[in-house]
């Protein structure tokens, strides 16, 4: 086992963006396509005298996350005021948690560079999102900042890891896995802007801890950490000390820049929020426990057992619970191994190419129709090439499977007489390749098979065709 002198811990802010309302008021949460400052009220604008009321559904969603991550939900949890000034925080403090957080412990299993690795968690707590600063043009050239308070008060769950991550790549693997788990729980839509934001703490053994704030993409996290390791190593090489500080990741120039010396915990003057009562969680935990879905590893193991598919296919299928659902519908109607390879290797690729996920796929290509298409393939009514053609046409233009096959003339040529006739024609028209073959250049056969495929638009089986050609070429004229 390789040891590393790099120590990384992550704080991940997750928006509970599938809930109806904000954390402490009844403003509608879904603001992503709204005009600025239209989802606001006295509470989330921090007007004097306005009082927060906790959203029970948000607490339940956070508990669901904690349970799925195998964390220990505390029976008694408190809210605190975290005091600091920033224009996007109208109250002058953020309602968060401190002592008595919602949950402690837990873990996420990732595929590390040396097999599986358990990334342990320190704590999971609930807090409110601040508003959003908006700049006309770029942040460096804008003359002023605009503030949109639509995001103010959106429920966040903050997941804090132990400092056990040892490379930028591992950090990214952790985030990918966490996102998959959160999407399984149906409390989170990762495709929305700012849905998951990361603060990364990094130090090299012996040096000060540097925090990189508010990175909004996983690729960004990996790149920021890679840059930061290099920067810190260079300082060490020159005999300079690494200051404890907070830095910002500049995504355009791929560098981190110093923001301020790191604030200490006492700077925030945490104290219990007097306007909210403590929350007792026992009843809520009982309610939530029954709603936990099957998680990725459990699903993977079940798919292997139930359908006899390989570990590698199962591992990919569970990366998206919708993809696994799609597979299961198809696998009930055709050979599951065939279904797995077509869903994972072909359909998934065609969707990726179009920037779609399996949510879209369910709408564009009913899994029962997909099964029907694979059935035709199993029955050799259509060739591999034909199946791909149907998939592409169906995704791009819709229509029924049978109509596509008919209009594109994709039914496989099965009659051996017909294939032999075409093979004879190809032999006739490609004297040079035939000569090459007879002179011992065996790869000339592939060329001839290719010509038959071309004439039939891929409607013959290549192995079958190869056999016929060989027989024709080797039988005495
Ligand atoms: Zn509000
Ligand atoms: Mn936070």
Brief descriptors of the model:
477 residues, alpha+beta, Arc Repressor Mutant, subunit A, ten-stranded mixed β-sheet, three-stranded antiparallel β-sheet, 19% strand, binds zinc ion, binds manganese (II) ion
Explain what you see:
By secondary structure, this protein is of the alpha+beta class. The chain folds into three domains: 6-289, no CATH class; 296-407, no CATH class; 416-474, Orthogonal Bundle (Arc Repressor Mutant, subunit A). The chain is 40% helix and 19% strand. The strands form four sheets. Strands 1, 2, 6, 7, 8, 11, 12, 13, 14 and 15 form a ten-stranded mixed β-sheet that branches. It has a three-stranded antiparallel β-sheet with strand order 5-4-16, with no helix packed on it. It has a two-stranded antiparallel sheet with strand order 3-17. α8 packs across α11 and α13 (416-429) crosses α15. The longest helix has 20 residues, at 218-237. The protein is elongated and about 95 Å long. The mean pLDDT is 93. The structure holds zinc ion and manganese (II) ion (MN). The site of manganese (II) ion has 3 residues, from loops.
